[in-house]
């Protein structure tokens, strides 16, 4: 009808005769429209929707929601007349934009039996519960897949799977948009029709590509272009080219075939976990096919199975991918755990071997310690034998000079004997505590010359340990310098005082000092005795790479500066 003749509403009437049993089963009136409408049964107004107006802008339209169908009782008379006064404003204008949805912009009417009435009463609750399950599951999977993508940026399959889950989530929300918003006949097709089907089409079109990239089957990477089919399907809303039911069925079956081929290749490559993705991907396609057949009135299933089909339609593939990835990481974790267990076992074996080796080395070390102590003890005994032989030989010599020479030699042997005695008595076989060593050395020398009462020796130094290679030359040097002081610094029975010290100046720099308050001597005076002791001191000073300084202006003071020597570096 031309707009010029349209008064703002039209009438639709039908007269029918129904079996009394059929009329008895009718409980509700089912009506669906996006425009204003009034429904009359046998001339009586039984329901109204919105408000009529000749002006489209002023007309109050009706927004279908999830409320239950309206109660209706039909009398038992034989013939009934059902009349509908309806507005076609929205139907006419929106038909030009949404051709595919034009049938929903007029009206749909019917009578509800008990089954249909029960369905309408729980339509909101069932739809909300269905959407809640879908949204919760998809949101959790979306977050998990996003985390995987951000964690492994180079893994493109994680991005594709994230996009699929996001598209499915958008489609589910748009399909149930009337749960949250009051839309009209123009905005509802945009959300529940165009955006819904386009978002789901994009996600569904990416299924084969996500599988080919996940299993790295490059010859099927071309499947990413299937997303254009979703754009073509959306375009068909505005420019009708093909039948929706036939197009959807063809695409769904083609995608199933592609996914089966990709799965078989993945399984042949011994990727057994591909079965999880197989069930998810083909499951989504299968439940989508059932959904399309229900919408096309090709099949009919119970309300419960319809909602189950709707839930599985959205979550099957993302859930299958999640199970696949979880299983992959589970296997990786088990493999890593097995590797850790194997490495731990190997480490325990190594530790046992090391403990055994340590015990063997400790036993060998203990044996070596005992052996070294025995060696030092025998060296000390042998040196005492040599000292005793020198003493016996000295007793048979009448020449006083020769007696002094023999006594000096005996003291030198004793200085080394004392050192070896300290070594085998100490826990440290490589180091000598120098203060105690010097004390014993001085006592031995004073006793050998019977000067313990007349000469006092003061040792001023802290406890200090030096290695054997340094201690032996220092002991011989102290022996020579102390002997010289006893023999030449205090003539005519005078009392005297000798000071001995060893200091660590800094790091490895040391200073040995021996001074007396005796008569001293002139620097250019001829050495008394044989001069062997002086030569020995100079030789030993060079051996420890030291520098000797002598001051005889007030008694005699000898300073020897040297560095701590590393074991085995001294010249013999």
TrEMBL record:
Residues 374-566 form the Histidine kinase domain. Keywords: ATP-binding, Kinase, Membrane, Nucleotide-binding, Phosphoprotein, Transferase, Transmembrane, Transmembrane helix. Its EC number is 2.7.13.3. It comes from Algoriphagus lacus. SMART domains: HATPase_c. The keyword Nucleotide-binding applies. GO terms for molecular function: ATP binding; protein histidine kinase activity. PROSITE patterns: HIS_KIN. This is histidine kinase. It catalyses: ATP + protein L-histidine = ADP + protein N-phospho-L-histidine. The chain crosses the membrane at residues 128-150, 157-178, 190-209, 245-267, 274-294, 306-325. It comes from the Bacteria.
């Amino acid at each position: 009808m031309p707009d010029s003749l349209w008064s703002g509403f039209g009438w639709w009437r039908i007269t029918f005769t129904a079996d009394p049993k059929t009329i008895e089963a009718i409980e509700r009136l089912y009506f669906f429209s996006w425009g204003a409408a009034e429904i009359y049964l046998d001339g009586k107004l039984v329901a109204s929707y919105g408000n009529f107006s000749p002006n489209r802008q002023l007309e109050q339209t009706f927004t279908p929601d999830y409320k239950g169908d309206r109660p209706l009782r039909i009398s038992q008379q034989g013939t009934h007349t059902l009349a509908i006064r309806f507005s076609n404003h929205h139907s006419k204008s929106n038909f030009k934009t949404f051709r595919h949805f034009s049938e929903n912009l007029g009206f749909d009417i019917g009578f509800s039996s008990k089954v249909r009435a029960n369905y309408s009463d729980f339509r909101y609750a069932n739809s909300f519960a269905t959407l809640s399950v879908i949204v919760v599951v998809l949101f959790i999977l979306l977050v998990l897949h996003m985390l995987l993508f951000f964690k492994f940026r180079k893994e493109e399959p994680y991005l594709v799977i994230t996009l699929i889950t996001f598209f499915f989530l958008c489609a589910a929300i748009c399909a149930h948009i009337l749960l949250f918003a009051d839309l009209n006949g123009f905005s509802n097709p945009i959300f529940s029709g165009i955006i819904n089907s386009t978002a789901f089409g994009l996600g569904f079109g990416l299924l084969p590509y996500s599988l080919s990239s996940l299993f790295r089957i490059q010859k099927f990477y071309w499947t990413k272009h299937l997303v254009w089919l979703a754009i073509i399907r959306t375009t068909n809303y505005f420019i009708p080219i093909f039948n929706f039911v036939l197009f959807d069925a063809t695409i769904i079956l083609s995608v199933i075939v592609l996914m089966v081929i990709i799965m078989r290749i993945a399984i042949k490559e011994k990727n057994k976990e591909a079965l999880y993705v197989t069930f998810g991907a083909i499951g989504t396609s299968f439940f989508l096919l059932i959904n399309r057949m229900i919408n096309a009135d090709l099949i009919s299933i119970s309300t419960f199975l319809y909602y189950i089909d709707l839930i599985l339609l959205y979550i099957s593939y993302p859930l299958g991918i999640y199970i696949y990835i979880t299983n992959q990481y589970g296997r990786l974790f088990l493999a890593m755990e097995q590797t850790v267990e194997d490495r731990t076992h190997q480490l325990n074996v190594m530790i046992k071997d090391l403990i055994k080796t340590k015990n063997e080395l400790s036993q060998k070390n203990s044996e070596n310690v005992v052996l070294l102590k025995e060696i030092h003890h025998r060296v000390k005994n042998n040196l005492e034998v040599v000292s005793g032989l020198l003493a016996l030989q000295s007793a048979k010599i009448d020449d006083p000079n020769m007696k002094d020479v023999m006594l000096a030699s005996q003291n030198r042997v004793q200085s080394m004997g004392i050192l070896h005695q300290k070594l085998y008595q100490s826990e440290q076989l490589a180091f000598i505590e120098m203060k105690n060593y010097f004390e014993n050395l001085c006592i031995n020398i004073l006793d050998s010359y019977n000067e313990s009462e007349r000469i006092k020796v003061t040792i001023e130094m802290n406890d200090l340990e030096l290695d054997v290679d340094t201690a032996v030359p220092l002991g011989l040097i102290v022996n020579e310098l102390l002997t010289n002081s006893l023999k030449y610094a205090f003539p005519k029975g005078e009392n005297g005082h000798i000071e001995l010290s060893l200091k660590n100046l800094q790091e490895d720099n040391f200073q040995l000092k021996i001074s007396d308050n005796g008569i001293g001597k002139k620097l250019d005076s001829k050495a008394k005795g044989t001069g062997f002791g002086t030569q020995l001191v100079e030789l030993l000073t060079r051996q420890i790479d030291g520098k000797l300084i002598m001051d005889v202006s007030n008694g005699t003071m000898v300073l020897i500066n040297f560095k701590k020597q590393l074991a085995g570096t001294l010249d013999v």
